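Prompt: I keep going back and forth on a fold encoding question. Comparing notes only helps if you start from a blank page. Show me how you would write down a chain together with its backbone fold. Please set it down just below, with no commentary around it:
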Amino acid sequence: MLAVFRKTFARRTTELVSPDPGLQQRCAKSREKILRHFQAAHPAVSFCTTFAGGASLASIGPHAPRPSFLHRRLFCSYDNVYCVFVGSIHNLTSLVRQYGLSSKPADEALLVIELYRTLRDRGSYQADKALKDIAGSFAFVVYDNTTGAVFAALSSDCGVPLYWGVAGDGLLVIGDEVEIVKGGCGESNAPFPAGDNFTSSLFILEMEKETER
């Protein structure tokens, strides 16, 4: 799993920026080189797509050799919202009932998209609470191609790895393979915080601020 977003989003993650800009410029790579690295690492079983809004998503196809990957990898799109997902969710049915989803999703990636759309459209749930309601080991990145919003999260059990960093041209990079992220971001990378989420969507941030007040 790999996601690359325009540098506007990277400004929200100042803790990832290397204290040595010169070293960062020499070591980190461009979007194109990072995507090529991902595809070269997984020839014939990987794919990537780049959107007009400056986002790129890459994933491993369902026919990748299983012994090389411990966790299931999914890619899904619905209503112009895209999700790359790694891992598994154990309580799909209860989440459908709890959040009033229209039907049981075919897989975890579609469930995550449905949850995101619930957060976006109803405005009645916190992102942190929604993540705590999910039972399983997972990491995912959602990209809304209509609004340009990004929603990424990692389960609290550390069962699935996830890393993020800032690339040489200032882009935000999120992925589950440390070699890809570190190779693309140089020293400006770190493990994604377990049990946490990142969102560029102002409606979720504002909703959480109101709840805290």
In short: Residues 202-213 have pLDDT under 50 and may be disordered. The first helix runs from residue 7 to 10. DSSP finds eight helices and eleven strands in the chain.
